[in-house]
Amino acid sequence: LLGTPAKTFCCAGCGFCGKVLVWPYEMSHWLNLKIILEELLQRGHELTILISSRSYLFDYHNPSAFNFEVIFVSGTREDAEKKVNEFLDAAVNIMPTLSLWESAKLFQNFFLEATEQFEEVCRKAVYNESLMEKLRETKYDVMVIDPVVPCGELVAELLGVPFVNSIRHSVGDIIERYCGHLPVPPSYVPVSMGGLTDRMTFMERLKNMMFTLFFNFVLQQYDFQFWDQFYSEALGKRLCSIVINYMIILTEIWLIRTYWDFEFPRPYLPNFEFVGGLHCKPNVCLQEMEDFIQSSGEDGVVVFSLGFLVKNLTEEKANFIASALAQLPQKVLWRYKGKKPATLGANTRIFDWLPQNDLLGHPKTKAFITHGGTNGIYEAIYHGIPMVGIPMFADQPDNIAHMKAKGAAVEVNFNTMTSADLLSALRTVIYQPSYKENAMRLSRIHHDQPIKPLDRAVFWIEFVMRHKGAKHLRPASHDLTWFQYHSLDVIGFLLACVATVIFTVTKCCLFSCQKIGTGKKKKRE
Amino acid sequence: LLGTPAKTFCCAGCGFCGKVLVWPYEMSHWLNLKIILEELLQRGHELTILISSRSYLFDYHNPSAFNFEVIFVSGTREDAEKKVNEFLDAAVNIMPTLSLWESAKLFQNFFLEATEQFEEVCRKAVYNESLMEKLRETKYDVMVIDPVVPCGELVAELLGVPFVNSIRHSVGDIIERYCGHLPVPPSYVPVSMGGLTDRMTFMERLKNMMFTLFFNFVLQQYDFQFWDQFYSEALGKRLCSIVINYMIILTEIWLIRTYWDFEFPRPYLPNFEFVGGLHCKPNVCLQEMEDFIQSSGEDGVVVFSLGFLVKNLTEEKANFIASALAQLPQKVLWRYKGKKPATLGANTRIFDWLPQNDLLGHPKTKAFITHGGTNGIYEAIYHGIPMVGIPMFADQPDNIAHMKAKGAAVEVNFNTMTSADLLSALRTVIYQPSYKENAMRLSRIHHDQPIKPLDRAVFWIEFVMRHKGAKHLRPASHDLTWFQYHSLDVIGFLLACVATVIFTVTKCCLFSCQKIGTGKKKKRE
């Protein structure tokens, strides 16, 4: 039932064709952002994408509708890809075998290494006078930034261009909270990366509060202080960073990659727009897989993908997964690049790549086994397919927690799961009708919006171009200090008043009592 | 640039024609709500409006596209109109001459009298078995409620029908805060009826906090306890009303009668939709007034209306207003029903009624003198006309404070103003270009929405019909107690832990010191 807004506000309609500069991130982030950028292109805007020479997902050597502006840094694209694969292998296969302490240490190493790399890219961008001059001269109307990598907002500030963020969420919502002033009441808004839901027991609310405090502490220590100093140097002015002062506070519009079909209802601000699922589209007919799918008959098919990040599983894991799948009456399409497991059933086919959206939209699809990436989950919501979630890291545990809480998924623990666990989870989502019903309910909610998420995203980017910002949506809280923001000065003053009154009244009473006592004493004398 | 959404979600398109029951309020509230209801009618829904026999604005005797269901109560429509006029006269002419205490006392009298009348209407509705049975049998799909008069939500609950609220705001935002869980951080969100803006000095923030506490206290004492008891009796179950438990907490969607052109940016929840200005529309050509307007030449015209509530001014006031207007080079169209002032200039014409929207949209209109009702302000925003605000009561001072803060209005105090004040204010908004520029900026913001406010309002009412509610937008905070909501239990627990740790460490230290002391002593001995 999604309506498309009247095209009157598109750039073609209003005669306004703008220039858009993009600071993207790779992997699934790019897959999502690309959809917005392609729509902007189609509407006649001019797009330039700033990328580092190490970026391995952007094919900037070949002709493209996008202009690429390359920031040359040390290392090759192959090195970068190797690094990412090392991290993924560590996250998926090594970290689960380590103690919490060793695991945190390993993660910290990767994190510091990544920060170093981001810093190099940033330095090579903002201190490259000819590049900055060229960008300045182009007079961009808006920047679209993925704030998961720092620096985009610094470039925007140096160029004097208003910018829009596209984000799923930051670790512990810390960027949204501190830079966007998004309220996150810990009693019913689970902090991101905590794997909690909006309905928490006392212990879970305690955990949520502790997570919040922990993320505040860790990120301020290790990340924000570093970048604040870097930004201060680049801007030639000291940023007042009591809490953190990434230039992200200047964001005009936050495009959040979820919507209320997925998200738990929570407070937000008028410059936050929830555009989750903007990449989803109706399925098209499948050519080569159709025969296999049709051969499933009444039982239908199961689609299985752990995303393009997980290429290999240990042989043992691959084997027991395959043996679980072999016990299903359904046909299974499995996206997997590793060695073919010995236990692979006749009902299961392995593919290097799957047309995931088209498969999920196929009427024979009964379930989706997913690692819980936001893009994949949204395709399942769009088509109303129940899920078995095998989350591994980043936002995946959170995402699956959302789908579980909404009754559309069962979770299986990647590290401890057995063949039986996976099979039982699959049978549950396929044969217990509530899972399909809930997935369909989410799908109906997703489709029943007054305006499509992609149109909303593009609308607000164009709005920023048309109005040179969206200042009317920016809360005045940004002009307050942290203690004013929390009304601590007012509360302190009121408490001081109350204390003064109590003190004065007590003193007066004591004084009167004494007087009366003395009077009585004198009388007795 | 407003887009109209694809008509696919309208009732005609989706083959769903629903039944809507309406619990309205009179005066400007009705003028606004009527626009939504007429749109619903046009889309094929069936509408029934519940009104009391005392309602004097609804012409339920004559044929209408709406069905009216009349609740018969004591007193006549004339009595009701007289009461309202008495109140208005008191608010406009008498209260300003009284002390704060006398004024509060007079207001309290009116308030208690109104509560009595509302209670009668409610009692005659919910205890009228045949009426309730008839309504129950009709099987309404949704109720649209103006929560300024209690009872609508009780009727909805008794009928088991989901409901949508249409509201500008409640006194002190208390209904939105307690029943909607809308966050109202006192540091940058001015509480309603306080006349403050989002940028406050320390003293203003203190005032804002005090207002908040005051409204909490007063309304809980005088209003909510009364209605909670009434509702508990009618529902046959005790409502747990520690804070207030109007059934309004069950609201599916809150349709707020403002938007970010008017409102200060503030946190809100996904079940709040800001649909301000939904009644505005392009102006049509004026027939009879056109000659008079054209005779203004380059100077243009000023439109002056204190709304339909203020019919009479004191002779003195009318005279100095007229003499101020007479000094303008502009022509003035003044909506006024009182005696023609002696000082009326040749440039000023008095009318019983003005086609306000069409006049504000006229290219010759330079300024709008308004009492600051939300509907009128929105017409000025829609057409980009700067304002002189003469607020009197209710939300009017707030509304004018908003427009002043946004640089589109100058305020004149109704009680203390002189002829010179009014004239100076008019000259300011007409001849200082910033006022026109700001009004035009607000107008551009208003027109540049991805979807028109009226379409959004209707969309969400239809959504509630289609989905039998909008539970996916309801925050989980509604299932928490007030101390859980504010995380007081978690904070208390954490403080207790910290205290225990400090206590234990101190004890250990003291014990160790003592031990060491004793050891040394022994050594010395």
TrEMBL record, chains A, B:
Keywords: Glycosyltransferase, Membrane, Signal, Transferase, Transmembrane, Transmembrane helix. InterPro entries: UDP-glycosyltransferase, UDP_glucos_trans, UDP_glycos_trans_CS. Pfam families: UDPGT. PANTHER family: EG:EG0003.4 PROTEIN-RELATED, UDP-GLUCURONOSYLTRANSFERASE 2A3. This is UDP-glucuronosyltransferase. The chain crosses the membrane at residues 490-513. GO terms for cellular component: membrane. Its EC number is 2.4.1.17. PROSITE patterns: UDPGT. Belongs to the UDP-glycosyltransferase family. It catalyses: glucuronate acceptor + UDP-alpha-D-glucuronate = acceptor beta-D-glucuronoside + UDP + H(+). The keyword Amino-acid biosynthesis does not apply. It is a single-pass membrane protein. It is found in: Membrane. It comes from Sciurus vulgaris (Eurasian red squirrel). One of its GO terms (molecular function) is glucuronosyltransferase activity.
